[in-house]
């Protein structure tokens, strides 16, 4: 059987504790710890506060969180490795196949342009050449301008 006792607090004049208060204010509901909290803020670092949170979270929950973070990290690591390999394959393929192909297409375009220029030069030469200079085929009747009296 459990026996419950009400223990009365002893009156102590120990003012070192930030939580101590006069006896009249112990039962008052208007006591605020905001002033006490502001005094402790300077002494406690951010890391200490995070470590203190570990005591609040139950061990099973901490284990679940830790395992999920580990699984997520390993999944991200594996995914980044696969993506990196795919990028490597695509870039090397582009360099080994695409670059020579682009160079060949550029050379072919230069050759086609040169052929067009040569054809244009030949057509211009035929237009500027005098009749009978041998540039026209001999099967064509040549109509030249004959001076009067001939």
Structure description:
The chain is mainly α and 150 residues long. It is built from four helices and no strands. The protein is rod-shaped, with a radius of gyration of 49 Å. It has helices spanning 23-26, 34-41, 46-56, 59-128. The longest helix is centred in the middle third of the chain and has 70 residues, at 59-128. The relative contact order is 0.03. The termini are far apart.
Question: What tags apply to this protein structure?
Answer:
4 helices
Give the SSE string.
HHHH
- What is the overall pLDDT average? 78
The largest sheet, given as strand count, sense and whether it forms a barrel, is: none
Count every helix, treating DSSP H or I runs of 4 or more residues as helices: 4
Measure the end-to-end span: 153 Å
- Helix content estimate: 55-70%
What multimeric state do the chains show?
A: single chain
Strand content: under 5%
Global morphology: rod-shaped
**DSSP E strands, number:** 0
- Structural class designation: mainly alpha
Residue runs with pLDDT of under 50 for 5 or more positions: none
Question: What is the radius of gyration computed over CA atoms, rounded to a whole number of angstroms?
Answer: 49 Å
